[in-house]
Amino acid sequence: MATITVGTENSTSIDLYYEDHGSGPAVVLISGWPFDSRSWEAQIHPLLAAGHRVIAYDRRGFGRSSRPADGYDFDTLAADLDTLLNELDLHEVTLVGLSLGTGEVARYIGVHGTQRLRACVFIESLAPSFTRSADNPKGVDRAGVEAVQQAFRHDRPAWLTATMNDFLNLDQLLGTRVSEDAVRNLWNAGADASPIATWACPRTWLEEFHNDVKRIDIPTLILHGTADRILSVEGQGRRLHAALPDARYVEIDGGPHLMCLTHAEQVNRELLAFLSR
Per UniProt, what is one GO molecular function of this protein (predicted)? Predict the structure, then answer.
């Protein structure tokens, strides 16, 4: 089991679990919430077959990483990512973020720059902001975040079961693009996460990334599903593309929030094509 230490909490270290496979140009995969690196299974095999070194890690509080009581803000999460890149001495890296992971990509670049990076990928992006506004009427506000947090405290496993439908659009895709077994596997990963971390992360949904996005000066790919019920394509993907007009922007028709699973073939085709450039 490979880990790096990113801090301490009282008498214990805060360690991040990671897997480091293959050789070639490095790709670092940063998962969505409330899941962990296991959610990249459909991408890891094709990336390795295409000749990439693939590093997938679990953010603090999730998967096989330590479960501290704090540090669930993008400044800290981006600092954790920076420690990983430095400890592994990675250069010419492509960062690939999904959902909450896109916040880490944006904040990492905003704070630490792009000296170590070759490119970046935003899949179902939080950036440039998820806060409800005139430009983003399908975003969230503080009351919405608090309602989600209250649902966790009441019955987190039941909330996860109910929300899996909107993560994967199960009313439309179950049995065709995703199996009950795959849903159960993802549910297990979400249920296994730290309750404190699961509760704390939604507060990050209100953070802004406009200044971070301005610092992106490397090739960028933006992928967004047209049927994402969590982060709308109008409010998120298209607004990020407007902020980064030189980025390659692709909408995956019918793709839900977790389209890396349901539409893996399309996602992988676009990802590999971008990396090959």
Answer: hydrolase activity
Edge to edge, the sheet with strand 248-252 lists 2-9, 12-21, 53-57, 26-30, 93-98, 117-123, 220-225, 248-252
Residues annotated catalytic, as ranges: 99, 228, 257
What's the CA gap between 18 and 41, in Å, rounded?
14
- Name residue 105's beta-bridge partners: none
Residue 188: which H helix or E strand, with range?
A: helix 180-192
Helix axes 264-276, 41-49, angle to 10 degrees: 40
Spell out the per-residue pLDDT of the chain, length 277, in tens. Answer: 699 999 999 999 999 999 999 999 999 999 999 999 999 999 999 999 999 999 999 999 999 999 999 999 999 999 999 999 999 999 999 999 999 999 999 999 999 999 999 999 999 999 999 999 988 999 999 999 999 999 999 999 999 999 999 999 999 999 999 999 999 999 999 999 999 999 999 999 999 999 999 999 999 999 999 999 999 999 999 999 999 999 999 999 999 999 999 999 999 999 999 999 8
Sequence spans of domains, the chain: 2-276
pTM beyond 0.70, yes or no:
yes
* Six token digits for residue 19: 């897997």
- Provide the CATH topology of domain 2-276: Rossmann fold (3.40.50)
CA atoms of 150 and 129, how far apart (whole Å): 23
